[in-house]
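Private note to self, pasted from the team thread so I don't lose it. Backbone tokens:
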């Protein structure tokens, strides 16, 4: 069973950091260094955002952090439309099991629960396998950002709201209906069905 736990306690934060250190060491051994120990201090990991541990049958299996702002990689996004994913890592024994999709599902659900319009993330542009994972999940590549020593690929996925059912009153004021709508890929609301609502209640437009 896959579950998620926010790393709030010191114990969970230590386990969170340990998973990232192991992932960082694995990448370094492969000649593809990403994070260094000085990047994974408590101050840098837990100062902002919501750190989550992914567990498989109680075993710590993955990490990620959800934040509302990312001025380093996404400086142009200054509104509250986005949840950003950071420090996304899957433990060695769980690689290739599809766990990354389950983790992204959870991140997307958390973002939608907050009313966010986008889930966004980045990764090193040369990490082609990871980019393929994000693209196969449904993320769209939207550009590159350049820092002093690295180039990162930027990805986003549009989050559509659930069916909406606003109540409306017809011109005569005698009958009310409920119009069930959903968001289209173009961002417009499309009516799915209309249902008459009878009774003495007052409905909002």
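Design output:
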């Amino acid at each position: 069973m896959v579950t998620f736990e926010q790393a709030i306690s010191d114990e969970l934060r230590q386990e969170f950091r340990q998973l990232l250190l192991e992932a960082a060491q694995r990448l370094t051994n492969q000649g593809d260094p990403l994070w260094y120990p000085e990047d994974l201090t408590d101050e840098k990991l837990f100062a902002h955002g919501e750190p989550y541990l992914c567990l498989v049958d109680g075993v710590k299996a993955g990490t990620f952090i959800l934040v509302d702002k990312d001025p380093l990689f996404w400086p142009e996004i200054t509104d509250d439309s986005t949840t950003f994913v950071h420090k996304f890592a899957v433990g060695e024994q769980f690689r290739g099991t599809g766990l990354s999709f389950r983790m992204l599902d959870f991140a997307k659900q958390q973002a939608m629960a907050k009313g966010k319009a986008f889930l966004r993330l980045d990764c090193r542009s040369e990490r082609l396998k990871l980019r393929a994972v994000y693209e196969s999940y449904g993320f769209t590549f939207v550009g590159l950002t350049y820092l002093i020593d690295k180039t990162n690929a930027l990805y986003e996925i549009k989050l559509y709201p659930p069916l909406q059912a606003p109540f409306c009153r017809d011109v005569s004021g005698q009958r009310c209906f409920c119009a069930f709508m959903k968001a289209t890929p173009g961002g417009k609301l499309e009516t799915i069905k209309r249902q008459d609502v009878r009774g003495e209640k007052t409905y909002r437009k």
